[in-house]
Amino acid sequence: MLSIQQLTLIKGQRLLCQHLNLNILAGEAWLILGMNGSGKSTLLSTLAAWQTAHHGKILLQGQSLADWPARQRAQQIAWLHQHDNVHFPMSVMAKVLSGCQTRLSAWQWENDHDFAQATTLLKELDLAHLADHDLATLSGGECRRASLAAILMQQADVLLLDEPLSQLDIHHQQYALKRLKQEREQGKSLLVVSHDPNHARLFATHALLLFGDGRWLAGTTAEVLTAEHLTELYQYPVRALTEASGTWFVADSE
Known about the structure:
With 254 residues, the protein is an alpha/beta fold.
């Protein structure tokens, strides 16, 4: 689906990642981890063609990302920004339906099938009771879930999600994680920025660690997510706790 070849990202005077090579296949979900300022959001915005890399190539289905017309690219790649911006009055339902725009013609309106899909997404993300509410009246977590629903409504094959779980309480994180797992099982390719390595065990197949100095580490979650790697990544002791349900990572007390 997405091939990243010798990608180098530089922001200001900082070398964020150097010679990054990744092949993102259908049905893979990648969790992207790193400290603040390590280049996670910069990487997603580059993969969304919002900004250009210092060096390297990005191929979408074997074709250079830069050669895709914007509308066709948006039908293939959906990008959830780090921040939710509400510039004018809009209901939650209207926000979710806005995800249809990439596949509708200029004068085409949403149909009954679109409304049914939007209603299902609202239920799955626990937003059905807020469908007619204005986004400006929602909490930060509610707005985040509405934005996620709009991105999923886009029905793109590649999902670039920048901190989709930010501002969500534990209860609603589970709603979102369950939906991300469903997307992966349907053959979508996911790249998800997070600050919690424990989110990987609920939906991810692979992990990418960005160290913020050009170095990176990528592979399956079993290979990459270890206490040693996470301790190096976060420059703070991380301990692995293993129990019947799996392994959890916690910050060790000094």
